[in-house]
Amino acid sequence: FVRRTEWQKVQTLLLFAQYEENRIHQILYLGSPCVFSTAAQQRSTGDECGPEDPRDEPKHPLSDCALQHKAIKLEEQVRDLTERYRKALADSENVRRRTQKFVEDAKLFGIQSFCRDLVEVADILEKTAESAAEEAEPSNPNPTLKKIYEGLSLIEAKLQSVFAKHGLQKMNPVGGKYDPYDHEIVCHVPAEGVQPGTIALVTQDGYKLHGRTIRHALVGVAVESQE
């Protein structure tokens, strides 16, 4: 509403400046030598054509200095209005872009809080599947545990597929470089043959939603071993 009111003011000022400019042109035309010459010719033939109408002559002609000053003032007003018009257009474009960016972010990250809660369910499912895998070893004759493990594995795979479909990706950065924007250090691990700053272990996977980190990965970073 505020932008529309400002735009209406700019339009009104532009119309006023155009009106003043046209009026100055009319005054300049009435005060030009050509007009005076035509008026003199009409006065010389006034006896033949009849009396001259006094309304044809300008009542209050302006001096050249006054006209020039008025023209300069109008030019300044036009420049000022043009500059304000450009600024209003730039502000309007900036508002449009910010609004569009806000709408796009709302579409992409509107489920961010829901995803944070859902990845905790994925953690529980993953740990349960790992426990079932340990119990469902070939040495264990119980076929039920094996079926439970297979079912949990299928559910976990399907859940990760749904996550990927909606832009939610797991981060397991073992062997990668530590990044404070994606990882959180929970411990330091002495390791030989590994460059310091490399992630040696992950205690909790991180997650990204459309490239934005919504949960940092909890990691252990390798340091030089001190013997």
TrEMBL record:
<comment type="similarity">
    <text>Belongs to the GrpE family.</text>
</comment>
<dbReference type="GO" id="GO:0001405">
    <property type="term" value="C:PAM complex, Tim23 associated import motor"/>
</dbReference>
<comment type="subunit">
    <text>Probable component of the PAM complex at least composed of a mitochondrial HSP70 protein, GRPEL1 or GRPEL2, TIMM44, TIMM16/PAM16 and TIMM14/DNAJC19.</text>
</comment>
<feature type="coiled-coil region">
    <location>
        <begin position="71"/>
        <end position="98"/>
    </location>
</feature>
<dbReference type="InterPro" id="IPR000740">
    <property type="entry name" value="GrpE"/>
</dbReference>
<dbReference type="GO" id="GO:0042803">
    <property type="term" value="F:protein homodimerization activity"/>
</dbReference>
<keyword id="KW-0496">Mitochondrion</keyword>
<dbReference type="InterPro" id="IPR009012">
    <property type="entry name" value="GrpE_head"/>
</dbReference>
<keyword id="KW-0007">Acetylation</keyword>
<dbReference type="GO" id="GO:0030150">
    <property type="term" value="P:protein import into mitochondrial matrix"/>
</dbReference>
<protein>
    <recommendedName>
        <fullName>GrpE protein homolog 2, mitochondrial</fullName>
    </recommendedName>
</protein>
<keyword id="KW-0175">Coiled coil</keyword>
<dbReference type="InterPro" id="IPR013805">
    <property type="entry name" value="GrpE_CC"/>
</dbReference>
<dbReference type="GO" id="GO:0000774">
    <property type="term" value="F:adenyl-nucleotide exchange factor activity"/>
</dbReference>
<dbReference type="GO" id="GO:0051082">
    <property type="term" value="F:unfolded protein binding"/>
</dbReference>
<dbReference type="GO" id="GO:0006457">
    <property type="term" value="P:protein folding"/>
</dbReference>
<keyword id="KW-0143">Chaperone</keyword>
<comment type="function">
    <text>Essential component of the PAM complex, a complex required for the translocation of transit peptide-containing proteins from the inner membrane into the mitochondrial matrix in an ATP-dependent manner. Seems to control the nucleotide-dependent binding of mitochondrial HSP70 to substrate proteins. Stimulates ATPase activity of mt-HSP70. May also serve to modulate the interconversion of oligomeric (inactive) and monomeric (active) forms of mt-HSP70.</text>
</comment>
<keyword id="KW-0809">Transit peptide</keyword>
<dbReference type="Pfam" id="PF01025">
    <property type="entry name" value="GrpE"/>
</dbReference>
<dbReference type="GO" id="GO:0051087">
    <property type="term" value="F:protein-folding chaperone binding"/>
</dbReference>
